[in-house]
Q: What sequence folds into this?
């Protein structure tokens, strides 16, 4: 693969044609830090992403969830995790659990609208029975991984062998399980044992684009494995960063540049196939960068897994030939959340109905395409009654019937954000390459409530919970309201029948 010029692409001027919905390519990066894209940090070599974003609209008030499964679930369902039972953690490979089957997915609705629907990459929304798989959730085809946190379908998977372990911390039975997690539709495939996953997913995406029936609109969902750990990338991409002495950071940035190259090749291929003028591209991370694996979210506070801005304030933009000309080269500061993509894409972009859905997301196409105000006035980051109470350890305890400040939660109302319970590590971690000292706050271990004005204090330096008790009460009441309407958390124990040794050494469905 090689870096691709986007000069031809960026010079094109087209008009959106209402009579025919555009092709949609949704690119989801994994564990991609806020500070790890070139237009936020010049050290990161992402020329293709930078050009695409510069000729689109950058979403600078855009939010995702702190970890993988919750973001993907809200993208595919348009519903908060408090309404799908996915409030707590990810879906681990041995858990008999998946995104609830009762509601249509984004792909289901686009298929209704006449789209060809294809997914390439990491699923991570459950796989214990075939009804949970992408090919049964609205996608015409699927190539990638079905598991969760330590692989594609699962989560943290080897980029070359496409094998992974179990990793579920509270199911020690699976400690030594190991198997293949790579599927072509519903068949496991051992044919790509030495092919780096970023290259593999890009090539599969290009094949889909080439073979697409151009009389139909295309929906291509591309959730990369990159740039999730393990830190693996061909040497030439690490060589792009000879002055980065931190080895994890150097490898991570190499993975970033490799992904960027692949995205450039896909966009060039859309042009070569005559689809660019009618294509809308959406780029997003799934959560904040993982500091322990080379990612960075500077100057935001916290990182992956936390309810601080570093865990939830995501990098994202919208671009492509189908984006109205007047919105190219703009910065969008409207409040937008990952759950908004469902109605935005289905209703706003594809012009299809939302029948059969019950959504927490809003149609943000007017905000994106016309610069209108966001329809979103508040945002529930999460309410997790199974997470350990503030500063206490252990997963399993009885959830209170009434919301209290020991419960891990966060909500945004207007410019104000309230955090309760244990939000995760709240350090400000500077990138190793710039030499700025990191800051690790020393707060009382009993503290379990914070209030910030995010517009005035986007990096969460100034806790106003003692000064603005009126706002604390207002947002606490909203959290209580949502807590009362939340469905019970679904977080089943591991099932030994998932063991890959029982399934030809593959991770697959077992029910």
A:
């Amino acid at each position: 693969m090689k870096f691709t010029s986007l000069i031809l692409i960026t010079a094109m001027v087209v008009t959106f044609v209402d009579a025919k919905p555009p092709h949609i390519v949704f690119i989801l990066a994994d564990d991609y830090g806020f500070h790890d894209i070139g237009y936020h940090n010049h050290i990161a070599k992402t020329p293709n992403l930078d050009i695409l974003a510069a000729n689109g609209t950058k979403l600078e008030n855009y939010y995702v969830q702190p970890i993988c499964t919750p973001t993907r679930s809200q993208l595919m369902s348009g519903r908060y995790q408090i309404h799908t039972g996915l409030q707590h953690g990810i879906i681990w490979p041995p858990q008999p659990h998946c995104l609830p089957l009762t509601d249509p997915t984004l792909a289901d609705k686009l298929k209704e609208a006449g789209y060809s629907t294809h997914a390439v990459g990491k699923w991570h929304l459950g796989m214990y029975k075939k009804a949970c798989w992408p090919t049964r959730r609205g996608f015409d085809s699927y190539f990638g991984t079905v598991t969760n946190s330590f692989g594609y379908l699962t989560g943290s998977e080897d980029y070359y062998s496409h094998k992974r372990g179990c990793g579920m911390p509270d199911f020690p039975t699976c400690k030594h399980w190991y198997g293949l997690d790579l599927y072509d539709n519903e068949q496991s495939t051992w044919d790509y044992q030495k092919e780096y996953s970023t290259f593999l997913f890009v090539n599969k995406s290009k094949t889909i684009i080439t073979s697409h029936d151009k009389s139909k609109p295309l929906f291509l969902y591309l959730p990369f494995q990159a740039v999730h750990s393990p830190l693996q990338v061909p040497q030439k991409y690490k060589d792009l960063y000879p002055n980065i002495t931190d080895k994890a950071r150097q490898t991570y940035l190499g993975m970033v540049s490799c992904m960027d190259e692949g995205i450039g090749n896909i966009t060039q291929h859309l042009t070569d196939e005559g689809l660019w003028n009618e294509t809308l591209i959406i780029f997003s991370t799934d959560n904040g960068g993982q500091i322990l694996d080379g990612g960075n979210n500077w100057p935001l506070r916290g990182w992956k897994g936390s309810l601080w801005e570093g865990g939830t304030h995501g990098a994202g933009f919208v671009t492509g030939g189908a984006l109205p000309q007047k919105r190219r080269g703009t910065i969008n500061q409207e409040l937008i959340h990952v759950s908004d993509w469902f109605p935005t894409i289905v209703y706003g972009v594809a012009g299809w109905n939302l029948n059969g859905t019950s959504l927490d997301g809003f149609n943000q196409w007017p905000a994106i395409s016309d610069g209108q105000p966001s329809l979103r006035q508040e945002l529930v980051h999460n309410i997790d009654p199974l997470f350990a109470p503030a500063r206490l350890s252990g997963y399993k305890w009885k959830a209170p019937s009434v919301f209290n400040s020991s419960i891990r939660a966060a909500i945004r109302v207007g410019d104000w954000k309230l955090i309760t319970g244990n939000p995760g590590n709240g350090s400000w971690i500077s990138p190793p390459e710039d030499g700025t000292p990191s800051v690790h706050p020393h707060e009382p271990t009993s503290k379990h409530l914070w209030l910030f004005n995010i517009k005035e204090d986007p990096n969460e330096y100034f806790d106003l919970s003692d000064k603005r008790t009126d706002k604390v009460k207002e947002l606490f009441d909203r959290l209580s309201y949502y807590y009362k309407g939340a469905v019970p958390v679904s977080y089943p124990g591991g099932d030994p029948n998932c063991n890959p040794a029982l399934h030809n050494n593959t991770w697959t469905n077992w029910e």
